[in-house]
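Friendly challenge for the regulars: who can give me the structure tokens for this chain first? No prize, just bragging rights.
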Amino acid sequence: GPGQAEMYAGLQELGVANGEDLKETLTNCTEPLKAIEQFQTENGVLLPSLQYALPFLDLHGTPRLEFHQSVFDELREKLLERVSAIALEGKVEERYKKLEDLLEKSFSLVKMPSIQPVVMCVMKHLPKVPEKKLKLVMADKDLYKACAVEVKRQIWQDNQALFGDEVSPLLKQYILEKENILFSNDISFLQNFFSPSPKTRRQGEVVQKLTQMIGKNVKLYDMVLQFLRTLFLRTRNVHYCTLRAELLMSLHDLEISEICTVDPCHKFTWCLDACIREKFVDNKRARELQGFLDGVKKGQEQVLGDLSMILCDPFAINTLALSTIRHLQDLVGQDTLPRESPDLLLLLRMLSLGQGAWDMIDSQVFKEPKMEAELITRFLPLLMSFVVDDHTFTVDQKLPSEEKGPIPYPSTIPEAFTKFLQENRIACEIGLYYILHITKQRNKNAFLRLLPALVETFSDLAFSDIFLHLLTGNLTLLSDEFALEEFCTSLFDGFFLTACSRKENVHRHVLRLLLHLHHKVAPAKLESLQKALEPTKQSGEAVKELYNQLSEKLELRKPSPAEVTETPPMELPLPTVPTPASR
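First reply, four minutes later:
Bragging rights claimed.
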């Protein structure tokens, strides 16, 4: 076919006879057999010792093709080894000169499947493949596919659109993987979104593939960062910030100094990574991080955009928020005010920078967001007063109570708290983490007291996937409370159901929780919840699927109609079946 002709076309350029030449010889000759023999002699393997061996192979029925093929394979292996060796020996310019000459000679045969690996190997070892050859490879889908990543990098670095096409499906996959974890049907307070260590996360498929595609190429690294920034701006999806940090740390693990030394965030990210691993910012690392922030020089403020993106990574926010809650508890014990704790102020400064990432990159105004004094003088002392309320209540419970009736748990929330959660992003983030903290401590009283404040929060943060993922996990610790009407009414009617109809993700999280805990919920409540959570025409596939799973589980739990209705008396006495004790 025409493909064959194109494939072997390169042979003529090199003065090697091909099928066309044989056809020509045979068409113009009088004695075909003699002509074939002569063609074989001229174009066979030129080894005197073979003259006698070949007829011997013929006798054994070994086709000449098979023999030539095995010789060829052997030679190709030797050649590939030789090319790899040349790439490492002698003076730099000499070895590349040799490889370039070899490429010049062999490139015309790049379409021949048998020769292609050799040509590809030569290109792979050339730090700069001639532009003309790169263009030819790029223009041919199959050649481009067959290229080593080392050659593709040379193509990509001058073709942002092509590189974007390669990277884009990986970024989609990454976001999808994150969302699958957040919506996973396994709910547990032990294993959650933040459980895997940074080192483990960096072993993920997407991070590894991107690391491999970038190699040591700073230009490609910058392109990926540009993609991540653009996507973060377009979608506000914070998982892109996680990938930004994971990619840098993956290159750090491989000690790719070509890139790490030119990324101004490297040392900051490395230090923060250690904090994320411990889920706590200790004093020594706090000093180090502060040093980086204070060290941003005039004229280099743009680095704040990158640092803010690193701090906007949910894993960083999680670490900063957990550390803040721990600091507040310590301050209660030490009778110290928040404004007197430099460590706490630094945590807030980093939270502000992280939470301000989108605005900073969007506005291109690179300065640290101003911290509102009220946050430190009013909001945090308010949280500390909640901690004190808990201590007081616990102590009161333990005191002998002859002289007084039982002290009720404070049930109202200061209006200021609700207002802060609505109007101040950092206050809202810390407030939500405080609620996660009391839930994890199984502190039902405190949970029910603060829950009403979550219905309206800054930018609906209380209905964000990460918070709901963590909350549903922690609520499994309060599973016994689900039998109580009052608890369920506060949690479902008072919180979840207020947003279900307008927020698909909340609908999903409630269904996840019920799939896990339905057996703990009082039957009457469960029935009304099942009605309230029924999918509408607008509901997505995920909601319908979860709802069906839940309905099936509840169907199995219902007593069968036979058990409910009066059984008519039968002539024969029914054998009694012992009911299993563990119902």
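The chain has a mean pLDDT of 86. The radius of gyration is 35 Å. Your move, everyone else.
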